[in-house]
Amino acid sequence: MVRSHTFLAWIACLLLVACSSGPVRRISEPAASIQQLSVDADGGWSVDLRVQNYSSIAMRFDTLRLELTAGDTAAGTLEAAPQLSIAGASADVVTLQLTPTAEARILLADALAGGRTLPYALRGELGAAPADRGRARDYRIDRNGVLSPVPGLPGVLR
User: Fold this and answer.
1) What are the boundaries of each domain within the chain?
2) 157 SS3 class
3) C-alpha–C-alpha distance, residues 111 and 128, integer Å
4) Could you give the CA distance from residue 74 to residue 68 in angstroms, rounded to a whole number?
5) Distance (Å, rounded) from C-alpha 10 to C-alpha 63?
6) How far is Cα 139 from Cα 40, in angstroms, rounded to an integer?
7) CA-atom Rg of the chain in angstroms
8) CATH fold of 30-151, please?
9) Which of 19, 27, 40, 119 has the least C-beta neighbours within 10 A?
10) Which superkingdom is the protein from (predicted)?
């Protein structure tokens, strides 16, 4: 009697193991934000864009096109084809060069000179697909943030 119960328990365990399907492949919308903005000697901006993968699997980021607004002023378009692979629930940084509009350049210089924060907005799309297969899909990005001058680093905001 005990042997038959033990045998049935083993069979039940084997059936449970056979029915398991492995880890869940959850694909979630990514996010993007400015990690750091530096003013170059020629007045151009170097933008360190943090790309966050909230999916449970690695994702490949093929394209990005984001309109950057500084304060209420259009600053320009961040556009790239980074071909960046980011592990699940992780982030990475892409550095992009931007020639800002004259108005945005003045606004940023004023914020740096006064030691004030500068609100920004990113609007556009990130093209991403699972790293192991598939075509990229465009994900809408709509992000508001604030940059602050970094003490001891002239021309740098985080």
Assistant:
1) 30-151
2) strand
3) 34
4) 6
5) 51
6) 30
7) 23
8) Immunoglobulin-like (2.60.40)
9) 19
10) Bacteria
